[in-house]
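Running low. Invent one:
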Amino acid sequence: MSYDQLNQHELAKLVPELLLSGHMIDRSGMGHVLAAFGQKAMTQVAIEEWMGASPVYTRRMRAAFGLTGDTVAEIFKMMQLDVGAPPQFMDFRYSVIDDHHGEFYLQHCGALLDVEPLGEEAVKEMCHDIEDPTFEATAIATNPRARFIPIHRPPRVPADQHPHCAWKVSIEPENAALPIPEEANVIGATEAATVQLSPIDPNEEGISDYRGPLTDDLRFQQWSRSALTRMAEEVALQHHLLSLSFDLSMRGRCEADQATDVLRKQFTGVAGVAAARLRRCLNVGEGADDLARVIRLHPALNPLQYTGITVAALGTDGVAIRLPADSPAMRDRGWMSTIDTDHYEPLEAIAVGVDPHWNNLSAHHDGTDLVVEIRWSQDAAKRRGEVAMTEFSKGAAFDFADRGIPLPLTPIRH
C-alpha cells in the first residue's frame, strides 16, 4: 500500500504527521553536527541546508497546487505546506494587509521550546542567524523581492512572552531581487527536484488546488483524495530534498565517509520517531502486516516514484524490503544510499518504532538490489541513541487538535 491507495480520511490524518516528521529532521541531525564541529558550524549547516532545499520544494509545491502569483498571500500559502512550519507545532497565524504587505506571529513555536533549554546563545542563533536568511530563501520561489522584518523575536522578554515571535513581510519594488542560493542550484539539479509524482484529479470531490483565498488553517479533510495523495508525496519528497541539502553542506566540511555516517545517523533518528508516530496515527498493531504498512507509508521511504522500494511479507515472521540499486534516490546519493549489508540502522529504527521485538535484521544482495529482512526477536531492543536524541524534541509526543473549519483571510486594505 502506498499513498495513492489510501482513502481521503486516512490521508487527511497522515499529511500533518508527514509535515511534523520533516520538521524533526533537524532535531535528528544537528546534534551530531554539534558534537563533531561545534555550535557555529552547526548554525551554518542549518542555514545552508534550508537555503538549498526550501526554494526547490517551494517551487514544486507551487506548481502542484496551482499557484502562479507573487503576493504575500501566496508566500503564506506555501509556508503552510512546508516541513519548516508543521501545523500547530509551529502555530503560524497570518494576516494580509494587501498583496505586498502582511504579518504573521507564532502563538506556539515548538522549535523555540526545544531550543530554549540550551540557553540564550542557541536561541539567538536559531531565531536570528538562521531565520533571517532562510525565511527569505523560502520566499524566493514566490517573490524574490520579499523581505521578512522582525517585530519581536526571542530570546523572550519576559520569559513567558506570547506570541513567541512576530514578523512583517514586505514586497517593495525598490527591493533588489534576491538570487537563487548557490546551494539551491545544486539541489535543483538532483532527480528529487524534478521527479514526477501523482497527478491531481480536478473533478474529485474536495479542494484540488490552493488558487482560492488564503485560510487561517489548512483543514486537510476538505481536500480531495488525489490532492492529498500529491501533498503526501510532495511532503515526503521535502524530507529527501532537505537531507540532500544537509549532506551537501556536510561534504563541504569533512571527508565523504564522515559525511555519510552523519547522514545515516540523521536518517536513523527521524526514521525511528516518525515510525512510532505513524503507528499511532494509523492505529495499527504490532504484527508483520502492521510493520509492513508503516514501512510502506513512512515518509523517509517515500514517495515510491523516487525511492522505488518494495515491501514483501515473510508470512507472519516479518517483512523484506527491496531497495533497487538504480532508483532516483540511489542516484542522488541520499538517505537510501546509506543502507548496505553492514548498515541498516535506519530500517531497524523504523521496525523498533513499531515494536521493539522487530530487531532481527539481515541484508543480502539479489542481483544489484539490496534486500533487508526484518524478523521478530524474543528479546526487545532498546531504542537507538539517534532516536533518543531526536525524541528530545517535544514534537515526538505532540498531539494535533481539530480546530474546526478554517476561515479565509481577506486583505485589510484593497
